[in-house]
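Notebook entry, structure prediction.
Reason for the run: the old model in the group folder had no record of what sequence produced it. Starting over properly, with the input documented here first.
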Amino acid sequence: MKLHITADKRQSMLDEVNLGRSLTILSRAHADWSQKTFGADVVRGPIGALQQLAKEAMEAAALPTDKTEYAACMLLVLDASRRAGIDPQQLVDAAQAKLEVCRLRTQPGNT
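New structure, fully documented this time:
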């Protein structure tokens, strides 16, 4: 049986693979820099990164179309979660599970 994949589906699959690869490369590069700059995960823990994340989130709220503010938040989420012992795949899995919980909730304006 031959499986036919459309060009759009093939591109979508390649985009997903590339996103995963990019996230892995980014996460590893950031971990290396962060540990060299701020200290080992076991020494520092996640609290400093989470406190900085709170500040960066306020900056993103002030500049909601500035992708660099979102990028700063993303890096800090990766940093804090890694320092808490959570790897990127575990974080993605937890986010997917959380999304399912959110879908079951009744949100304001969504009755």
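Summary: The mean pLDDT is 91.
The old model has been moved to the deprecated folder.
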